[in-house]
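Notebook, p. 212. Picked up where the previous page left off. The plan for this session was modest: take the two constructs that came back from the sequencing core last week, fold each one, and keep the raw output in the notebook itself so nobody has to go hunting through shared drives later. Recording the first one now, exactly as returned: residue sequence, then the structure token string.
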Amino acid sequence: MRVSFDEGAPKDRFRIENIGLCAVSNASVMVDLSTSQGGLIFDVTSQGEGVEVFQPFELVEGAKALGGVPIVTDGQTEVRLDIVSLAPSEAIAFTIDVDDTRGQRAITVSGSEIEGAVVSYSDAQAKESAMFSTLSEAEVRLPNC
């Protein structure tokens, strides 16, 4: 499973793609920014820790794969997606605003700032995780396939 982050204006984008040969079902994927180099947070309201522009969580791809849409609050560092079923080559994507709390340009997130953030996958049989690289990607190997 590959998770990629694309810095954008005004919305940043996360994409979770099943790059394996087997369907993923009854699983969850957690994106945890708390360990990122830039001290990243989700900026979803005009109030709180974020700066300037904010964008709420918006699911833009793969809604049918999920059991529901997560609620993300301002300043939160984690988002969990509960997957009902995601076939090979299918993806889930969402837009949101991500700000850094340690850098000089809080509204722009570079690959080095997301480095160290963690993606965790879990289902009834396995728990796996991977860290984002400076290329703004994390690849979680799923052992059951």
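Okay, moving on. Second construct, recorded in the same format:
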Amino acid sequence: MKLASKEAGMIDLFMILGAYLLGGLSTGYYLVKLWRQEDVRNQGSGATGATNAGRVLGKKGFLLTLMGDALKGALAPALSMLFNLSLTTLMLCLIAVVAGHIWPLQLGLRGGKGVAPALGGILVVDPMLASAAAGVFLFVLALTRQFTLSGLAAILGAPILSLIMARPFEQSAGLAVLAIFILLAHRKNIREMLNKSSQRRR
């Protein structure tokens, strides 16, 4: 039994590490490198995500990056489910793939903001909750016309929705950690939004 437990622990660790490395495959970075021979991080916000890739490559680049990043976010928990791993490991894999997207090892820890892979992963983990989070996203987008703010609202709302929907503690806690990571990745954006808001009041 001890050997089986040790082997199970090694599989969990391997899956979490693999999820982190998968997250580091930044779709926007490689698309811009392929099409423009440029580093997308030298443009706009300096991130590798869909919004910044769209600034360089247009709508096509935006959509391809969004789909690629969401797909890798979905793949990590999907593989965990395929191997029948615990909910704790599944959530750690989701956190790891988003962490890899935000802080990719091979890109000097300079990646994207994490919204697309997070939403892709949540869709696999809990489709009903993902639908509710998508509703939050669309509602905020209709009000503000701001993609980043809408994505943030959906991600920050996910752990609250998880609690309201009486989901397991591991899921709600994992989503809360995910939200913290994405808040950290967006700290510059948040400061800019707060500054703009204070300037309007003046």
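Notes on construct two before I forget. Residues 50-82 form the longest helix (33 residues).
Flagging for discussion at group meeting.
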